[in-house]
């Protein structure tokens, strides 16, 4: 790839690709489709620093590795590969949707609990929703999502083109959940602002007297 790509999605599925080669830095690519190839190793993805959607389903991948270079990755489809053991530390904490169905690693003891604990923003695992794990702040262990992250969430959704393993209705639910979270944050900020105004009025009344 040497020219300017016309869209932010790059489709290389079903192209008999055996490996992910080193490319020039492609910051404009948000979605990468590499399903149904012959890829054996996850590598060289640092060429896509802004990647949010990655589909590697139906390849020959044996290990989850080299994904921490993708700090914005929200959707990862690794279904129907040859992954026997899973190291959750190799997965980006930004993940919202993860699919590992069809891999032996899904039979590991405590598989689901391990991933839920390692990925605080996870909303869906193997086509099943995760309840009570929508964000770090809702688990009581982190700071609220910044406005910049909210904008990234809103930008992500139109970019998604449903991979064959992800349920279409889920994205409507995801959008509603993200919008609901943003509204709750705005409501909380407004309530705090009103409380501060009321406190200032009370102090002013005390200072000025009757």
TrEMBL record:
Record keywords: Cell projection, Cilium, Leucine-rich repeat, Repeat
Give its localization. Answer: Cell projection, Cilium
What is the name of this protein?
LRC46 protein
The record's section on SUPFAM superfamilies has:
L domain-like (SSF52058)
- In the UniProt record, the signal sequence range is none
The primary site where this protein sits is other
One Pfam family this chain carries? LRR_4
């Amino acid at each position: 790839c040497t020219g300017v790509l016309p869209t932010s999605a790059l489709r290389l599925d079903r192209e008999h690709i055996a490996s992910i080669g080193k490319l020039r830095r492609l910051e404009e690519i948000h979605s990468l489709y590499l399903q149904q190839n012959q890829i054996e190793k996850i590598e060289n993805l640092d060429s896509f620093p802004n990647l949010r959607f990655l589909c590697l389903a139906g390849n020959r991948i044996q290990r989850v590795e080299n994904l921490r270079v993708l700090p914005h990755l929200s959707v990862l489809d690794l279904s129907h590969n040859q992954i026997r053991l899973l190291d959750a530390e190799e997965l980006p904490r930004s993940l919202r949707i993860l699919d590992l169905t069809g891999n032996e690693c899904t039979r590991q003891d405590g598989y689901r609990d391990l991933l839920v604990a390692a990925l605080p923003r996870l909303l869906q695992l193997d086509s099943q929703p995760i309840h009570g794990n929508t964000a770090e702040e809702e688990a009581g262990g982190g700071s609220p999502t910044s406005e910049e992250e909210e904008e990234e969430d809103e930008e992500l959704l139109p970019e998604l083109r449903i991979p064959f393993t992800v349920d279409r209705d889920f994205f409507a639910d995801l959008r509603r959940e993200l919008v609901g979270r943003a509204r709750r944050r705005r409501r909380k900020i407004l309530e705090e602002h009103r409380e501060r105004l009321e406190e200032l009025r009370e102090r002013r009344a005390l200072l000025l007297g009757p």
